[in-house]
Structure formats: structure tokens, C-alpha cells
Amino acid sequence: MSAKKPGEWPLTHQEFEEWAASSPWQDAVTKPMNPHQYSLKRRSPDPRMFEMAVLHIREFGSQEYFGGSEYSYYEAAGRKSWTMMNPLEWTILVNRKELPSERAEHERPDDEPFPRRQ
Residue 89 has what pLDDT? Predict the structure, then answer.
């Protein structure tokens, strides 16, 4: 847990990544145009650690808008994590999505350097 007080707030970045690696994740099938995964508090091996991860996302994440709503996003281990911004006691899941690779953001595939004109 915390580097100064193991088992207490605040989590370190590494502790958040360890939580994410040890949590069970499920593909979100209801959002095919926005593929992501979620982890449920009720399936968490440690519900207290789940809540600390939620607080970590909200405390150390950045605010962004998606679909007209504001969320706290936290980037770790090549993924962006977020919650639905309910009060902590009502938060039942954490979402995550793969971040695009730098190559995918800045380069075209080798076999198609430029769009073709029709």
C-alpha cells in the first residue's frame, strides 16, 4: 500500500498497477463501438483495495469529457481507467480501455502511406 504507511492511503502508482493486474476484468459487450473492460467491486478479491483504487483514479486522474459527461481518467500500464463518478459507496465498477499505441497515433501502416484517390 502506501510507501509511508503500508495498507493506507494514498496508493502509489505501482500499487494501483498491482491492483489492476490482480483484479478480474470483463469485456463490456454492450458498447461495441467503444470497446473497454470493467471490474466489479463484488468480484474484487479485496473490496477495500477496490475503493482505494477508485479514490486513486479520482485524486490523481485528469478530468475529461466523454458523451457530454465529465470523468476522471487515470493512465497506468498502457490503459486509461475511469469510474462513473457516483459517490464512493455507490461505485460498483471501474472501467478501463487500452491506450492507442504511439505508432498507431502518429504513423500510417507501411502498406498504405497515403490515402488513395478515387
Answer: 95
